Amino acid sequence: MNGMYSKENPLRIYLGDLTYDTVTLSTEAFPLNIGFIASYCKKLFGDAVNITLFKYISDLEENILSSPPDILALSNYAWNKRIGLEMFNIFKQENHNGLCIFGGPNFPLDMPSQKKFMITNKEVDIYIPLEGEVGFSNIVEKILSENITEKLTENLSKYAIDGCIMRDKDGNMKFTIPEIRTKHLDEIPSPYSYGLMDKFFDGKLSPVIQTNRGCPFLCTYCVDGNSAVMKVNNFSIERIKSDLLYISQHVPKTTKSMIISDLNFGMMPRDLEICDYISEMQSEYDFPRQIQAATGKNSKERIIEAIKRLNGALRLWMSVQSMDEQVLANVKRSNISLEHTLALAPVIKKSNLRTSSEVILGLPGESYDTHIETLKKLVKAKIDSIVVYTCMMLDGSEMNTPQERNKWDFKTKFRILPRDFVKLQSGKKIVEIEEVIIGSNTLSFDEYVKLRLISFAMYITNIGIVFDPLLKFLRENEIDVFELFLNSFVDIKNSSKNVQNIFTLFEKSTKNELWDTPEEIIEHYQNDKNYQKLLDGEDGLNVLLHYYAMMVGESMDEWCDHVLKTGKKLLKNNNYNNPEILEQYDSISNYCRGLSFNILGENRLETNPQFSFNYDIEKWLESTDEKLDFFKLNQTRELIFTLTEKQYQYVQDKVEVFGTSAIGKSMTIKRTPLEYLWRHAIVAGN
Predict the structure, then answer these.
(1) CB 366 within 8 A of CB 327
(2) At the N or C end, where does the chain have fewer CB atoms within 10 A?
(3) Please, what's the largest Cα pairwise distance for the chain?
(4) Average pLDDT rounded to a whole number, residues 97-101
(5) Prior bond of 105 cis (ω within 30°)
(6) Helix H or strand E encompassing 528
(7) Which residue has the higher pLDDT, 208 or 384?
């Protein structure tokens, strides 16, 4: 290489994978993605490049203003697109000759939409649409080999660069091979062993590992449902173990979580070996206690075994999205065996694992009735937690193409992504915006709102542990548990004023969060008074988590009473008026009340409710065949419901990261394993 760049005069590069942290941390993942790009470039170009990585918006903004680089390259996801574009604007003002590069999955699939993206977002000089290492290094190599030391954008536009989509000087699209993947992933050096991740062990972010890349599924709503990434490529086991050891030895004591960024973790045979090694790290370093990962869609037996080896740190997600065969065919998920998945639920329970399932509301061809049927089937399969998401229209997904939009007559609105907003040094406010489906040719808006309310009632009742005794007892007596969830919503007028108010606010927020255009949102929040509502947690909520946190933190006792009254009514309506059955139900009710009492209060360690029981409810919960009357005690037992110091400290550590605002509380609850959240029973006097 005979260019003018050298150790003394390197090509200066800023790489950013930005997260918002205005009110609380929005995305806590280490920027491993840009770490891969940096380590690959350092491997190829050594001291001819000087690369700095950024995660926090204020940090990048300050460095651009004080010392702008030659190249600013940022990741583009649904949650950081607009801040990325604004950083490019600021950068161009500071360095007119600088080069702006965007990369990531948040980019249209079809050529007309890609061209529109590049014309609309003139801040972007080059887009890298798939894996970034090779495309980005090709750009750097061209700059270095051609001695391009000024007017980078103008001079680079003369070339077509593999792995990149560009504009020529006339604004026309220019590319050769726009999509390049790395088959042998170990060719990319570890950002951890290079020391590139060290500064992100800051006690706020969670370390990330990636064991493979690619997804064999073609789901049309997903940016990874792309034939270009169907083949799965792997990092070596040795490389993965090295990264895990590095992380375990460097992670702060207050950091308990780790993220596995694979798209289908646990599906591959070698994932069991990885889990065994993680288990060794848990024993030696007490890390990680919680693992965030998308578990695989098939090979559930292997995934169950993998999760068992992780000592409760990872939950199995049985993400069905819909149980309607036609809807699944519409979104190209017919190659995923739902019946096989649900058939494994008893095996999962027997392994003392909890199950969760995701459902998407608003998919093509979904109706009110098919959605309700999906929820009923999941409840019948005894899934512990069912989360219903509103369908997002993602750039890079097949669903967000003109053909699919027209076919299903999607009705869409725009809303702020929760927690994703910031006021920059210039005073300009940036908010991230998503487009969501709120109706189609098979689903009305009113049905959409009603289904959201039903799913909220189900979520806070079926979340796991706290109502497990109630659900088990109702099933034991052949009561349809879905009727409990549905009637808890239908009879909401018979609940307390506080509970009614939370549901009223939930419905109001579900409607009020929707806007006709992104421009309306942007203009509205430039006003200081309106922006303050974002800061105060009045606007820009994750509606489900916010009101769930409100219920848990402020009115869980009252919600518990309402659900228990609803359950008792179901028993009586089904002719269960036997005094012994009703006595058993009262015991179950007190057990639920004890588990759910004062979960987030500052005085929660000192307020420990106590109840008398004539049944051994804990042993009954562990059993699979015997009914509650088999566990009647010879004498009454007094139980106290407490939180351990370990539980208390775990929650406090999360509060330190996310804060005590309403938004912060919702994040704390989201990131706290259930076994650390709810109380447990101990025998009085022991």
Answers:
(1) yes
(2) C
(3) 91
(4) 95
(5) no
(6) helix 528-535
(7) 208
What pLDDT, on a 0 to 100 scale, did the predictor assign at position 308? 86
Structure-model confidence comparison of residues 674 and 61, the more confident one: 61
E strand residue ranges, 308-393: 316-317, 355-361, 385-390
Nearest-angstrom CA–CA distance, 462 and 444:
26
| Token pair 């260019």: residue | 3
Residue 493, amino acid: K
Question: Which two tokens mark 205?
Answer: 């972010």
Instruction: Report the C-alpha dihedral over residues 606, 609, 614, 615, rounded to 10 degrees.
Output: -80
Single-letter residue type at 55: K
* Helix (H) / strand (E) containing 680: strand 680-683
Q: Is the Cβ–Cβ distance between 412 and 436 less than 8 Å?
A: yes
Mean pLDDT of the chain: 91
Residue 109 — very low, low, confident or very high, per pLDDT cuts 50/70/90? confident
Tokens coding 5: 């760049």
**Angular region, 681: left φ>0, alpha ψ -120 to 50, beta rest:** beta
Question: Pairing mode, if any, of strands 680-683 and 173-174?
Answer: unpaired
SS3 264: strand
Cβ(225)–Cβ(209) under 8 Å? no
Distance CA 18, CA 59 (A): 10
**Residue 525 corresponds to which amino acid?**
Y
Q: How many helices (H) and strands (E) does the chain have?
A: 27, 20
Q: Phi/psi zone of residue 61: left (φ > 0), alpha (ψ -120 to 50 degrees), beta?
A: alpha
Instruction: Identify which of 327-341, 362-376, 651-665 has the greatest average pLDDT.
Output: 362-376
| Cis, bond preceding 10 (omega within 30 deg of 0) | no
Q: What would the pLDDT profile of 35-71 be if each residue is shown by its tens digit? A: 999 999 999 999 999 999 999 999 999 999 999 999 9
Q: How far is it, in rounded angstroms, from Cα 177 to Cα 394?
A: 23
Per-residue pLDDT tens digits for 141-156 = 999 999 888 889 888 9
Determine the Cα–Cα distance for residues 431 and 542; give it in Å rounded to an integer.
14
Q: What does the DSSP assignment read for 72-132?
A: EEEE--TTTHHHHHHHHHHHHHH-TT-EEEEESS-S-SSHHHHHHHHHH-TT-SEEE-S-H
pLDDT for 341: 65
**For residues 559 and 496, what is the distance between their CA atoms, to the nearest angstrom?**
8
Strand 233-234 to strand 257-265: parallel, antiparallel, or no bridges (unpaired)?
unpaired
List, in order, residues 6 or more apart from 291 with CB less than 8 Å away: 257, 258, 259, 260, 278, 310, 313, 314
CA–CA separation, 248 and 197 (whole Å) = 13
The answer, yes or no, to whether residue 178 has pLDDT greater than 90, is no
At 183-220, the pLDDT tens digits run 999 999 999 999 999 999 999 999 999 999 999 888 99
161 versus 229: the higher-pLDDT residue is 161
Q: Which of 163-167, 301-305, 493-497 has the highest mean pLDDT?
A: 493-497
Instruction: Name the pTM for this structure.
Output: 0.88
Span 476-497, mean pLDDT?
Answer: 96
- Give me the phi and psi of 478, to 5 degrees please: 60, 40
Give the tokens for residue 468.
Answer: 């497990």
Cβ count within 10 A of residue 110: 13
Hey, what are 524's tokens? 């509205």
| Token pair of 426 as six digits | 């210039």
Nearest to 119 by CA among 170, 180, 156: 170
d(CA 73, CA 33): 12
Closest CA to 14 of 60, 55, 58, 72: 72
Q: Which helix (H) or strand (E) holds 376?
A: helix 368-380
Parallel, antiparallel, or unpaired for β 355-361 and 316-317? parallel
Distances (CA, A) of 532 to 79, 176, 526: 20, 47, 10
At 584, list the tokens: 């058993």
